[in-house]
Amino acid sequence: MEVTEAIRRRHMVRSFSEQPVDLAVVETLVAQARRGPSAGNTGGTAWVILAGTDTDRYWSHATTAEWRSRSARWPGLSRAPVVALSLCSPAAYVARYGEGDKLASGLGPAGGAAAWPVPYWFGDAAFATMLLLLGATDAGLGAAFLGAFRGEAELLAALEVPPEWRLFGTVLLGYPDGNDHPSASLARSGDAEARTHWGRWGASSRP
Fold first, then answer.
1. Check: CATH 3.40.50.300 for 3-178?
2. Beta bridge partner(s), residue 142
């Protein structure tokens, strides 16, 4: 599939079938995602992949029993056979930007993570996550991105992730079952082209 076609076809899938996914395919997709940009070639992003019954460990920490009992989306989401956790290490970036070629940035250990006006670790994790979402589309899989809204510390501890790592978000992978629950956000209207400005804010036509 051409990249432009994968971009056009990509969308969030929130209801999965019970059809298993070949883990060799997942391995390839994650390897491709690791080729995303890495500020300073830090390599401060990583993945934890949960498959089969291991996915229960994600849901038990990232959701609550009350939410699972009332959510119409829960059955479809829970059937996703693969849960991929997108991780990043702020400490790795701070250490890297304290090295000689980056020291002048002022973003090293002296200032710590608080010195960063834009945290590159989240940007790199987002790049990697987007590559995984596009790769899933290219491979004929459905995917959904879930934010890290609760249970992060408990989940990462349960998975024995070192404490310096953060959970950027989660990608569910599997085959759509055709019974999706579209987000209410899709009803929002707006002029997408108005978000591009040429030369100055408010100029919508290219020179």
1. no
2. 174
Helices 120-138 & 23-33 angle (0-180, nearest 10):
140
Burial of residue 192, with CB atoms counted within 10 A of its CB: 0-12 exposed, 13-18 middle, 19 or more buried: exposed
**What is the per-residue pLDDT across 83-101, written as a single tens digit (0 to 9) for each?**
999 999 999 999 999 999 9
Nearby residues of 129 by Cβ (< 8 Å), 6 or more positions away: 33, 86, 145, 168, 169, 171
Domain ranges of the chain: 3-178
DSSP state of 200: S
Rounded to 5°, the CA angle 175-8-170 comes to 50
For residues 143 and 80, give the distance between their C-alpha atoms in angstroms, rounded to a whole number.
9
Contact 42, 108 (CB under 8 A): no
Question: In this predicted model, what pLDDT tens digit does every residue of 4-21 receive, in sequence order?
Answer: 898 888 999 999 999 999
Q: In what order do the strands lie in the sheet with 82-88?
A: 45-51, 82-88, 166-174, 142-147
